[in-house]
Each structure stands twice: as structure tokens, then as C-alpha cells.
Amino acid sequence: ANKSEIQVGNLDKHAKDHYPLCMRHIHETLKANHHLKHGCRLQYLLFLKGIGLKYEDCMEFWRQEFTKNIDEDKFQKQYSYLVKHCYGKVGSMLNYSPYSCVKIITDSVGYGEQHGCPYKQWESTVLKEKLESYGLRQENAIEISEMAQKGHYQLACGKYFEYTRFKENKNVINHPNQYFDESYGAIKR
Ligand code: SF4
């Protein structure tokens, strides 16, 4: 797969076809609310950078969504900085790495926040219903929710990969960007 296809216009499709559940949920929350809380913004921006979305495109995507609710000036003052920061354009100019599953799973997630790992954060019925709404068969949604309830978050994520991608999950999911690359075809299974 060619990473030049990673453009703002096809992120909805990539979210549906190639994102792990954590990132698909954040993407859909952003598209629905045109806003994300700080922890969510950080988790998703670094992921977007990791899948190969260019800085200018990422800034435009962020601007397009946020300015559906707020004016351009407020966006530039309050929300553009984090995009620059994540891409190493300001501050210490560090090139921050996208978060691994272990980091996402162990970081604390406050009430009402949408980031983190859904297999850990969500109640079993919420998870099951979401999976079914994404087209999984009921028995497969139950299987994944039970794995999550037992604390096997990354294994549950691997099962979601199998049931949505219709191919075996040979590698343990350790990173949302690894999930994307494997789904998108950048890593051979
Ligand atoms: Fe995201 Fe990792 Fe959780 Fe999968 S296991 S949903 S990639 S944090």
C-alpha cells in the first residue's frame, strides 16, 4: 500500500477499514462533535502522524473540524499549537512518537474522556453493542467483550482485527500504528 494515499479526504474510509477501535472511536467522536479533549487530541494526533499524514494536511484536517464549532482565530490561538507540537515544529522541537498500546492502556482516562483503550475503558455491554453496530456477528462481539472483561485487551484487539479484516491475526497487537500498517498492507502477515 502506498502511504501517499493517506490524505484528509480518505481518513473516514481508513478509520472504518484500517483503524483499531481506539482510534476509530476518537475519529468518529471528532467528526460528530468537532472537538476533542486534550488526552484524545494527543493520542489521535500522534497516531495520524504515525500513519503518514503530513503536517500541513493534519493541520488542515484539525482546522476543518474544529472551525465547525469555533472561529478561526480561536482555533489558531488554542488548538493549532498542539498539532505543531506533535509534529515537532515548536517548543523543544522533539519528534514525539505515537503511543503504544501499553502506554494507552496504562494512562489514566478521566470521566467523560474518549481516549484510552476501549477494551479496558468501556463497559462490556457498550463494547458489545458498538462491535455489533460495526457489523460483527453477535457471537463474535460477545467473544471479544469477554476477552476484554478478563483483561486481555490486546488479544481482544487482535480478534477485532480478524473479524473485521477477515484474516488471521498472527502478530500480537502492540501498537495502534502497527495495527494500521498490518491492516493497510504495509506489514505482511
Ligand atoms: Fe488501541 Fe492497542 Fe487498545 Fe487495540 S489494544 S484498541 S490498538 S490501545
Layout of helices and strands:
Layout lengths: L10 H8 L2 H13 L4 H14 L3 H12 L5 H15 L14 H6 L11 H4 L2 H10 L4 H12 L3 H13 L10 H9 L5
Helix pairs in contact: 4-5, 8-9, 9-10
Keywords: 4Fe-4S, DNA replication, DNA-binding, Iron, Iron-sulfur, Metal-binding, Primosome
Organism: Nicrophorus vespilloides (Boreal carrion beetle)
Protein name: DNA primase large subunit
Structure notes:
This is DNA primase large subunit. It comes from Nicrophorus vespilloides. Residues 13-180 form the DNA primase large subunit C-terminal domain. DNA primase is the polymerase that synthesizes small RNA primers for the Okazaki fragments made during discontinuous DNA replication. The protein is mostly helical and 189 residues long. The protein has two domains: 3-86, no CATH class; 101-184, no CATH class. Helix content is 61%, strand content 0%. The chain is built from eleven helices and no strands. The longest helix has 15 residues, at 72-86. The radius of gyration is 16 Å and the shape is globular. It starts with 10 loop residues before the first helix and ends in a 5-residue tail after the last helix. The model has no long low-confidence stretch (mean pLDDT 93). Iron/sulfur cluster is lined by residues 20-22, 101, 104-105, 117-119, 153-154, 157, 173, 176, 179.
Q: Which range best describes the helical content: under 10%, 10-25%, 25-40%, 40-55%, 55-70% or over 70%?
A: 55-70%
Q: Biggest sheet, in brief?
A: none
Low-confidence sequence ranges: none
Distance between the first and last residues' Cα: 14 Å
User: Which class best fits the helix and strand makeup?
Assistant: mainly alpha
* Number of domains as seen in the coordinates: 2
Bound molecule types: iron/sulfur cluster
Radius of gyration: 16 Å
Mean pLDDT: 93
Work out the helix count: 11
Beta-strand percentage range: under 5%
The coarse silhouette is globular
Secondary-structure element order, N to C: HHHHHHHHHHH
Number of strands: 0
